[in-house]
Write a structure and sequence with these properties.
The complex is a heterodimer of chains A (about 220) and B (about 120). With about 220 residues, chain A is of the alpha/beta class. Chain A has helices spanning about 10-20, 35-45, 55-60, 75-90, 105-110, 120-130, 210-215; strands at about 1-5, 25-30, 45-50, 70, 95-100, 115-120, 135-140, 145-155, 175-180, 185, 200-205. Classes of the chains: A alpha/beta (about 220), B alpha/beta (about 120).
Amino acid sequence: MYIIVVGGGKVGYYLTKELLEQGHEALLIERKSERVDQIIEELGNVALKGDGCEVATLEDAGARRCDILVTATGDDEDNLVSCQLAKSHFGVPRTIARVNNPKNERIFRVLGVDVSVSATNLLMSMIEHEMPRRALLHLLAIKHMGVEIVEAVLPSGAPSLGKSLTELSLPVDSSIAAVMRNGAFKIPSGQLTLEEGDEVIAMCKGERESELRTVLLGSA
Amino acid sequence: MGSRLANVLDSEGHEVTVVDRNQQSFRRLREDFGGRTVLGTGIDEDVLVRAGVEGADVFVATTEGDNRNLMAAQLAQKVFDVPTVIARTYDPGRSEIYEKLGLKTYCPTLVGARLLHEMILGKE
């Protein structure tokens, strides 16, 4: 695989280093010449001085034959434009962008970037996993469909306790996928009655999440 | 350039909002400027919403950064469905590529070069 990394900061540097160690062909594009010299000294001749948002630089970097382009600078606008040029002008099959403002994770996909990664969002989801009470844990997002798969552990006093699944008034675009009780899996039939400590796995459209939480756990 | 454009449009009776991340920039607006000013960066959707992008007829991005303009303009066009969107782009290469992608761009480099050419050799 040939992978171009744009931005020679800490993220871009360690990413390039890892890719090389795994045997890929990787090239790092960086604007500052001192930084380029430093990287070449440490990693070998794998860095190119230039602006990854300029057509000429991407041409020099061999973007036409590149399999993946990753943008890792600290500026979202630069990461976006570089990915868009790679995709539309050079036909790079897969573009991956680091986003700094977590809200841009969604926006970048709307604007044609294949994958966008926000360190803030990753850390936030880690934190959510650490504080399960009264909150839905995000297990998985099926991003292109806007569907979230979430888990709720039912605490005492939750409004859903003692109700069968048919009695729950679930919001539209949501459904219960499974219930785990004392480590055992329960088929989510309509007659199944929820108990304290049940782990409920549900799926819902992203915008329905707070309604679903209210039905299962009560309002925050 | 943004403040100049804002002053002209405002004096023509249009409803104008200026977004800038630097408070100092608003001092370039005329004393009798009747529009709104919003402090913040134009590549942040929350800032754009505060500026009223959702009901805007026209969105113009004229910061000093090509990429910032291209990103802000695409937010306005593709996320907020503003009907007319223009991005200032100094780099003719990027200007041409984004024109092909359906974004209107204004390239001062090309316009300036053409003007200078005319001044040197006269209009053809």
